[in-house]
Amino acid sequence: MNWKEYYKQHLMSAEDAVNHIQSGNRVVVAHACGEPSYLLDVMVANAKAYKDVEIVHMVAMGKAEYCKPEYAGNFRHNAFFVGGTSRDAIAEGRGDFTPSFFFEVPRQFSSTMPVDVAMVMVTPPDENGMCSLGVSVDYTLEAVKQAKLVIAQVNPQMPWTGPYSLVSVKDLDCIVEHEAPIIELKPPKIGDIEKAIGEHCASLVPDGATLQLGIGAIPDAVLLFLKHKKDLGIHSEMFSDGVVELAEAGVITNAKKTLHPGKFEVAFLMGTRRLYDFVDHNPDVELRPVDYVNNPFVIAQNENMVSINSCVQVDLMGQVASESIGPKQISGVGGQVDFVRGASASKGGVSIMAMPSTVKGKISKIVPLLDEGAAVTTSRNDVDYIVTEYGVAALKGQTLRQRARNLIEIAHPDFRDELKAEYEKRFHCKY
């Protein structure tokens, strides 16, 4: 059977497609802005047909209505990364969180977490019957490979990001055509604090460096201060609109990369339509699975690799909490540790943890001890630099006493005296 005949035979309504989901199934949903929102809406509308369906994904960018209390008996969310729409369900016991380094998530689908159903969004097929997973390849490609049943929303608004994002029409069991805008992530508001942090981070980025940037106001602020740099490159789990601006300005060329020179290497994308149009059929942009992009041994092959991530708290030993406030899970490890370790093993590489010094001026983020129950995301052995709006603290190769002094110097002035008192008590010497 040729692919066109297969496509016609497997084309159906969304209602018919979600009827293939069975109670007790594990359903893996495409990541972030690659989420097939239309299919999820129809699945939730059919909730009475299910019992204990497990919904697995990382960041949910859509409504995540399956997390609502009224669907507690129908769906149970299992998150690799907790977001705003899933946080309450997990905190209130209606959902679960599974700790995992991002680069190891695909491995779970062939071992500890076998996939019953993958729900994805793809481009229309090309002349060879191949569809692109567009903005979400990461773990999504492996979910398609491992699933017993694949339900795909075919959306002509999804950008084409081949060649490593491709799946055959014949890998899709239920094909649903539905055109809709891809979920967009609007640029964050960047204030004076973020700008100060961005400028400090940018001072650690040499010409020709390869960058990994997280998400949010701080990474975007860093980009503001890189406009005078030359021949920067991108090897990152994701990037957003700010990278497009620097690429169009000739700052990001990827020319000096020692791995995949000339190419943007990325696992998923989150941004506006400007970003999606930039990557669409762009041969210089390569979306690949996260077990390649985020593998520390792959990352380390980029010389002068600079990793920039944000965090919630840092204690005076240099332990970093990035995913929980005390025992409450608020996000996940994502690719932070993948890139911290990859950058540390890179020739000339560094990793940077960046954060405002306080929570709205009221609570210091540099603390004597992490909050009770907080998860240590990045160990004190892994951290190179901590950055706040007050400067840069170098930790790698520093004693505990030196680390504490360096961190106190970049803490908010309102909290330095109490941190100094802790320093003198802990180290038996004057500050």
UniProtKB/TrEMBL annotation:
Domain Acetyl-CoA hydrolase/transferase N-terminal intervals: 9-182
**UniProt keyword terms in alphabetical order:** Transferase
Could you confirm whether the keyword Transferase appears in this record?
A: yes
GO biological process assignments = acetate metabolic process
Acetyl-CoA hydrolase/transferase C-terminal domain residues = 271-422
Question: What domain of life is recorded for the organism?
Answer: Bacteria
GO MF assignments: acetate CoA-transferase activity
Q: What residue intervals traverse the membrane?
A: none
For whether the record's keyword set contains Transferase, the answer is: yes
What Pfam families does the entry give?
AcetylCoA_hyd_C, AcetylCoA_hydro
Q: Which family does it belong to?
A: Belongs to the acetyl-CoA hydrolase/transferase family.
Name-wise, this protein is 4-hydroxybutyrate coenzyme A transferase
